[in-house]
Amino acid sequence: MTAPRALRMAVALLAVASASAAVAHTGGSNGYASIAIDGATARYTLTLWPAALPPEVAETLRQARAAPGAASDRLLGWIRDKVALIADGQRCQAGSGSVSDGGPSAESVTVVVDYACGAQIRDLRIRDDLFDVLGPDYHTLARIDAPGQTTQFAFSTEARETRIELHGPTRSLGIGSFVLLGVEHILTGWDHLLFLLGLLLCGGGWLSLLKIITAFTIAHSLTLGLAVLDVVTLPDRLVEAVIGLSIAFVAAENIFMRPVVARRWVVSFAFGLVHGFGFSSALRELGLRTHGLLLALFGFNLGVEIGQGLVVAMILPALYFLRGTSWEPSVVKSSSLAILLVGLVLFVERAFL
After folding, report:
1. DSSP 263
2. What backbone torsions phi and psi does residue 18 show, to the nearest 5 degrees?
3. What is the pLDDT of residues 162-190, one digit of tens each?
4. Mean pLDDT of 308-314
5. How many CA atoms lie within 13 A of 131 on its CB side?
6. pLDDT digits (tens, 9 = 90+) for 116-169
7. Would you call 45 helix, strand, or coil by DSSP?
8. Residues 6+ apart with CB under 8 A from 9
9. Which of 88, 143, 233, 285 has its CA 20 to 30 A from that of 124?
10. Own/partner long-range contacts of 193-196 (Cβ < 8 Å, ≥24 apart)
């Protein structure tokens, strides 16, 4: 297999993978939990969206929404079995619980379970193994509220436990867990990566490539912060559709026009603003207080940049090898065509379906 053919095939496979994961940029499915600690008790509240979960799990959640019964008992059993609260070395007892929906216009399910810990909670360890039931790409984004302090943590298959001290210094602010979440978010975000690849295919020399990458980073970091802090928000459906359109636009520009390389960073910046709103969905629902939210935002954005840097570091050598060769035009055109098709599919799906 020749080098250009191999490169075209790699990009085409990337495009096909992205088409089968139209919502991959969310970094998998998220549940939003709050753990309210009061003396010797704790209330665990978890909100889930059936549409984002495996079919069998989603069906259980839909049945639990409809009416109390076996499905509700099964859902509560998952929480009692997979979410452990250990206070001062002793496991708290999971007691009564309830299941409710998010209202007539919502598609979510909220589960509440009360834990009794026997004595005043001073040192609390929380373990979340819901991934064993809800799937390996599931995350629980948690806010932990205690008198005088709020902590946040992103539970994942790689970060299943956190520990906090009440009435003392918090041992873990959870920043590292949000860094990991940011890395995973961008590495599984095929739509964001395809947009960046489409820009870099005709990015020119090293200085032009640096401008494109920097502009995208600054733009999405700006709107990520504005959206998470609720300064500026846009409808998710609109954001998702424009992200798909941005992919199609840069690919079409590669095929049908001659991109002005020196000014392509402007395109990167403009559409990077929209991509930042897409990134924000993983943090917006947490409802953290400003201090905790800023820490989570910093960690998450740092993770996004680390993941993006890893991907760019892998792409740039191939692009450098491609520049100036006789088969560069055909590789750029065929790769851009694959990216264009994916972008159009994502746009139509997100805007109209």
Report:
1. G
2. -70, -35
3. 988 886 554 445 677 788 878 877 887 88
4. 87
5. 18
6. 998 899 889 999 999 999 988 888 888 888 887 778 888 988 889 998 888 655
7. strand
8. 1
9. 285
10. 193/14, 193/18, 193/311, 194/14, 194/15, 194/18, 194/247, 194/339, 194/342, 194/343, 195/243, 195/246, 195/247, 195/250, 195/271, 195/275, 196/308, 196/311, 196/312
